Amino acid sequence: MLKRAWIVGLAGLLAGWASASEQAVKMKDLPAPVQKTVQEQTRGAELKGLSKEVEKGQTYYEAETKVNGKSRDILIDPSGAVVEVEEQVDLDSLPAPALAAIERYAGSGKILLVESVTKGGAVSYEATVSKGGKKSEVAVSAGGVIRKD
After folding, report:
1. Which residue, of 57, 79, 115, 126, has the fewest CB within 10 Å?
2. What sign does the dihedral 23-29-31-32 (CA atoms) show?
């Protein structure tokens, strides 16, 4: 019984630690260069939320938006530079090799969501797949190579 309580306590601590790396913020709390980038990048979009997160010791800011009914998330560094953009896209807009790789991964499952991910000038794709009642994600390059990061 004591072991179970210890495991439950540890799980709660780890969950709290994991969520502590991302926190909701308001526009006024962002550094000025980040505010400027958010304003530029969200023109014509609905701003759904802002957050501050720490990844591998680096601080980033994320703007979650909706454009024409589709999600678009922008990751920004403290200097205001756009680091990464994730945009919900239609499956039929993918390059043929990326589409084929995602369909192979999904097999008999259902492809629920596809996003293009632009980072450092390179575009890749992430898909959320439901198979056997479980959801999973796959990331592929434009050339159809499954990424392991």
Report:
1. 57
2. positive
